[in-house]
Specification:
Length: 279
């Protein structure tokens, strides 16, 4: 599933291509994605100008001149194709066409993505956004804020950081990478972290996300950038997907047994037991 850096990269591509342009038509080839697309979707979007974009967690909000926002989630395999050809791509379920002929296609083979509408002024009250925690890249996300959110939690820190009510938008790859940078074992009880640890963890989260966005995200099976290129941050992974390999901070060290892989809440977790010691 695309994570925050990939969603941010997609949103920025859409912003460059669509902001300030009128959507002259919307082609709906099938309305049954993860949830049914609203019956009035085409009529509500066609003829309106795109006034802005916003990302909230892993959701993209495309704001329109009629004070409605299109809510887009890429799901497991969704992607955006900018300047898509007249003949739709395989699994291109929705296409936005601008008045000057630009095309923006939403491709989703598994159909776990979604499209919806919400009044722009009520975005924060939208059913999937209302309970979200702070945005990790905003100034309001600080060590004390994270420390307060984790207080009393008995779950492992890896699991807690994937809870969108604690912090929005974090996913498996970047949580593994941030915990590695701070030397925190992923099975550490979340509520046991000290204030100085949450401060360092918040900085590591911000650093790894910003670096990934600058690299265009991480390309796995389905993700490509909206203009068709690949993200490159997977080449900078320090532990994720590196089972058995030495981590960058202790290659060849006698105590380093290599990156280990465990399963937490049904997801793979990668960490270096030499650097991230269990306590």
């Amino acid at each position: 599933m695309p994570e925050l850096p990939e969603v941010e990269t997609v949103m920025r591509g859409m912003q460059i291509a669509l902001q300030g342009h009128e959507i002259s038509d919307v082609i709906l080839r099938r309305p049954d994605l993860r949830w049914q697309i609203p019956a009035d979707f085409r009529d509500s979007v066609a003829g309106e100008t795109v006034t802005g974009f916003r990302r909230r967690g892993k959701y993209i909000l495309m704001r329109l001149s009629n004070n409605l926002s299109v809510v887009l989630h890429l799901g497991m395999s969704g992607r955006i194709i900018l300047d898509s050809p007249t003949a739709p791509a395989l699994h291109e379920h929705v296409t936005f066409i601008t008045a000057d002929g630009r095309r923006c296609g939403f491709v989703d083979p598994r159909r776990f993505g979604m499209l919806d509408l919400v009044p722009t002024g009520q975005e924060e009250q939208y059913k999937f956004l209302a309970a979200m925690g702070p945005e990790p890249l905003e100034p309001a996300f600080t060590g004390p804020v994270l420390h307060a959110a984790l207080k009393g939690r008995k779950s492992p820190i890896k699991t807690a950081l994937l809870d969108q009510k604690v912090v929005s938008g974090l996913g498996n790859i970047y949580v593994c990478e941030a915990l590695y940078r701070t030397g925190i074992h992923p099975q550490t009880t979340a509520g046991s972290l000290k204030p100085q640890e949450t401060k360092r963890l918040v900085q590591a989260i911000k650093d790894v996300l910003n670096e990934a966005i600058a690299a265009g995200g991480s390309s796995l099976k389905d993700y490509v950038r909206p203009e068709g290129g690949l993200g490159y941050f997977q080449h900078a992974w320090r532990v994720y997907g590196r089972k058995g390999q030495p981590c960058p901070d202790c290659p060849g060290a006698p105590a380093c047994t290599g990156v280990e892989q465990i399963t937490q809440a049904g997801r793979s977790t990668f960490f270096c037991p030499s650097r991230q010691k269990m306590r």
